[in-house]
Amino acid sequence: MDTPPVPSAGTSRRRFLQAAPLTGLVLYVGLPAIGVAADAPAKYGGDGMPEGLRDSPKIFVSIAPDGTVSIVVNRSEMGQGVRTSIPKIVADELEADWKRVRVVQAPGDEAKYGNQDTDGSRSTRHWFDPMRRCGASARVMLEQAAAARWKVPLDSVQARNHEVVHKPSGRKLGYGALALAAAKLDVQAPASVKLKDPSQYRYIGKEDTFLTDGQAIATGKTWFGIDTRLPGMLYAVIARPRVLGGKVKSFDATEALKVPGVVKVFAMEGTPPPSEFQPIGGIVVVGKDTWAAIKGRSLLKIEWDDGAHASYNSPAFRAELEQAVLKTGGKEVRNEGDTYAALSKAAKKVEANYYVPHYAHASMECPAATARIVNGACEVWACTQSPQASRDRVAKRLNLAADKVTVNVTLLGGGFGRKSKQDFVVEAALTSKEMGGQPVKLTWTREDDLHHDYFHTVCAQHLEAGLDANGKVTAWLHRTAEPTIASIFAPDPKTLATFELGLGLVGLPYAIPNIRIENPEATAHARIGWLRAVNNIQHAFASQSFIAEIAQAQGKDHRDLLIELLGPDRLIDPRKIGDGWNHGESPERYPVNVGRLRGVIERATKEAQWGRKLGSGKGLGLAAHYSFVTYVAAVVEVSVDPSGDILIPRIDVAVDCGPTVNPDRVRSQIEGACVMGLSQAVVSEITFKNGRAEQDNFHQYEVMRMNLAPKKIVVHIMPSTYDVPLGGVGEPGVPVIAPALMNAIAAATGKRIRQLPLRAQLANVT
């Protein structure tokens, strides 16, 4: 990885934050941003993100005299392969030799590099076209420089594999020899740039397993946030309040200061709820090494004021949520036809309740950031998904101009949304300030990570379906109660924000005449944040499990019913089915395509040999879902032994994300999503007692171990042309896994699991 030398629309998440000052104002997602005229044309995709898109090669491409092409990546790498995919787009249009390409990581600077938020499964889909233009513009500039040197017409020269060739004579000039002259030329207007025909692609869409940082990662030679080392660096950890809104009443650091290597203990002021992404405060222990700091922290004597949320207990809150979804009168978020009337007249009714707990991000690398302040300027090294937001918040807390703060982005050992929150970066900067500007690395332990996460929200859901005398589904009622992410930005919102409703809830694409979706109130008692796939996790679990239950009640094949509910192939304007967000994408460019959803269902079930006879205690389960403008279907095969232990021989996943830049990374992301989805389904859970997260480490917050992992995951990428816009990949694979597994278990055992995680619910089931 290229690292700095040691001693460097839709409503977007950042715009959502910018519109939510920590005041008593209520935030309504979907209203025009402050300073934007209400009648201004809507912007979508990358253009709708803060600072938008850039496509100039003078920003992203530089060529050395020896011909080395350096390509800047403005998004954060956390395993999704963005430091490979984006440079390959540029290199392909540039006609560069990939062996001579060097990848450079951009610091946080959106005014220069365009939007840098690495979230929402949108890095490649937003930057595919701009990076194509960037590479093509650079190629043309090199061709212009060669034509001028040879004094020949431009159309007589052509860039080919790191050289410009004069076609009539065969003369050649390497990119290094032309770079200086090319850099002095103007960049073509984007509309005039001629892009390659996809048939000419050398890298885009091609099968390989190359990963820019792969060898360096495997050999321990790259740089993650926790790897930063600076001369004279100190190390810090923080004892934070365990309860939302808690604070320090008093503390005694006498014993902590006796630990060899501990140099200072001080109180860091926190931000009371709603605290956005600001530090929650606590007692900071600074040492000459991390172990001294951790040991010192363990000896602190702290009296806490737990505040109003000290009574938060998971069993009681679950009961509260479940009562809420059983009552009529919740906020109406979608209503077509007359669902209550249709239910009352139904020949048959099916109903079920589902529960999903809090989850933690639990990325392999815990949050870590290093900061130092020299001559009134702060420099940070951090594993951040949002470097510009980190820069903005550090600048504000240190009372510095933004140009006095540099945020260098390291590799991320996983992120899943946690590292888009900047609290840990601000903590490092504030600690350096307290230490007179000395470099300080602020480390979160795994216990810190699980106790003080921005948790995936807890959720209870109630669904009802009405069937007519012919078994046709005529009514669908869905109620969901879940604390909202908006609760970290504004005081006490109790219903879901627009973008949360658009995450697999209101946008059901089924041809059911009467659909009603309600959102009862729910109070947040913990910091809520987005986790990979966000609210799609619980919404897909409920809806896809429930369709299987309807099929069972009718005696129908689950796949056949699912396809029947989709109705005829058609394009649906998401706004007409209640989704005014559509993942921030244009509803005209990204309508919901029922035919594509049907296609992945048919592909996954074909590959899994749906309908084949299985032995006792074995079953196949199906789920399909549209999220992040991508269509995914999964079939899970499961075997359940008499004691209730499960084995997963195979998972087939069909994914239609439009054209793919790097098919190997698409498969890798879907494979990882399968493991993460299974962890959520089988073992992962955060519970609260007296306001505190009860899980301390991986012996309590479990992730799937190798013995439970699928023996085989087969990813089927649906073919696509480049006329279809790109979809997301990092997140859409997660939501289908839990319902597909539970549907498989129901098929194998006859027992329906409606509460996650599975854990011991199958004890002695067969």
Automatic annotation (TrEMBL):
Entries under InterPro entries matching the protein: Ald_Oxase/Xan_DH_a/b, AldOxase/xan_DH_MoCoBD1, AldOxase/xan_DH_MoCoBD2, AldOxase/xan_DH_Mopterin-bd_sf, N-heterocyclic_Hydroxylase, OxRdtase_Mopterin-bd_su_IorB, TAT_signal
Aldehyde oxidase/xanthine dehydrogenase a/b hammerhead domain mapped to chain residues: 219-308
Coiled-coil regions listed: none
Gene3D superfamilies: Aldehyde oxidase/xanthine dehydrogenase, a/b hammerhead, Aldehyde oxidase/xanthine dehydrogenase, molybdopterin binding domain
Protein name from the UniProt record: Xanthine dehydrogenase family protein molybdopterin-binding subunit
